[in-house]
Amino acid sequence: MDTTEPPAFQRARSPEHRERRARDLLQAAAELAQAGGTRTVTLKGIAQRAGVHSSAVRGYFSSREEILLRLATASWQAWSRDLTEQLAGAGPLDADGLARSIAASLAEHSLFCDLLAHAAVSLEREVPIDCLHEYKNAAVGAVDELADAFHRALPALSRADGRDVVAAAAALAPAFWQYANPGESLQLLYERVPQLAHARVDFEPRMTVLLTALVNGLTGPRA
Which pTM was predicted? Predict the structure, then answer.
């Protein structure tokens, strides 16, 4: 029997304290998702990680889905910022170099890839409209910022085509991330039946190959 007492709870009363508490809850959710995957995150787990009572979480967020979509909002912004900075210091790139940079950046932002896998399927459908609005604004802003960064790194790639590259990367990354990081049961199956293990992919190399082909197609001669 678990006799552990819940942590002493102090209500956050001032706006500053409430903002800090909300950040703590988001950080707790991010740590749990990073450790066990987005699908394992629960409100109870977030509360325990943050050191508050479970009921307190709903004083800041309407649901688990809202917390995760707000993490996805921040993840779009962080990925865009980091990749833009990397490209600014990389100098002129060819299609392969740009694709490698994008794939490597996505591999570094593993939580973002995992969150994207859940965003359109479930998270966007279960949150208040203000949360959804913030998420969409962040995504659109990130796409525009990255399209500009891609064009500066590879002028042959127009900004319009750069947006298509971002869209493709954001569509491919969540799927390939799941294939590259199977759950325990699937890992056990691959060990027992090795001929099925080809379904497990190496995330970064596979993303690089596909993005290189896309960028080459967009920057090459068109019929």
Answer: 0.87
